[in-house]
């Protein structure tokens, strides 16, 4: 009989990897030999649902985010001087149709864990002076492959409605806790950003309603819109 994986009790889920200052603190480039071994290493790393955080895999992830930031800048015709801050958001999503997304709880301290995934939908928000630029792509952290790039921009003045939606995938038997941000525009269209898609487990707990990253995004969006409209 296959042994079931157990979840830690009475733990707190920490914010996801801090990726707001990647450009100020770049990670070392992955060596070719190490990159070739990456799929095998990643597969082994995600065999355990719970374990001690390993620096090597986080370097892979951070390098992927740096690549995504650069791709987003190129597609949006941006340079780092054109925006005040870039915030990276990540939610689990299969890289290939039918691919299974694996998640893991990395222990970072006593009863503290980071939830990470081996495949993700990554969104990067570039907060400029007058415009919000955004970039989205799918990343396979097992290999470092990136696909399905999308970029766009919104003038803060054109945002007429801001709505957040925090809900479960199934209210009776929830498996995921989801947070979406909807920006309604003056032309009647809207833009949606997925801020959170946490897989639930026994004892799941956040210190507050929002993670620091989520709170920062909402605060920045509202501040920029109010400044644009001089409210």
Give a verbal description of the structure.
With 231 residues, the protein is an alpha+beta fold. The chain has one domain (12-229). 23% of the residues lie in helices and 37% in strands. It is built from four helices and eleven strands, in the order βααβαβββββββββα. Strands 1-5-4-2 form a four-stranded mixed sheet, with no helix packed on it. A four-stranded antiparallel sheet has the order 3-6-7-8, with helices on both faces. The longest helix has 21 residues, at 55-75. The N and C termini lie far apart (63 Å). The relative contact order is 0.17. Mean pLDDT is 85; it is low at 1-6 and 17-27.
Catalogue the unreliable spans: 1-6, 17-27
Number of distinct beta strands: 11
Mean pLDDT, to the nearest integer, reads 85
Residues in β-strands, percent: 35-45%
Tell me the distance between the termini: 63 Å
Strand order of the largest sheet: 1-5-4-2
Secondary-structure-derived class: alpha+beta
Instruction: Give the count of helical stretches.
Output: 4
Q: What helical percentage do the residues reach? A: 10-25%
Radius of gyration: 18 Å
SSE order, one letter for each helix or strand: EHHEHEEEEEEEEEH
Q: What shape does the CA trace take?
A: globular
List keywords for this structure.
231 residues; four-stranded mixed β-sheet; four-stranded antiparallel β-sheet; 4 helices; 11 strands; 37% strand
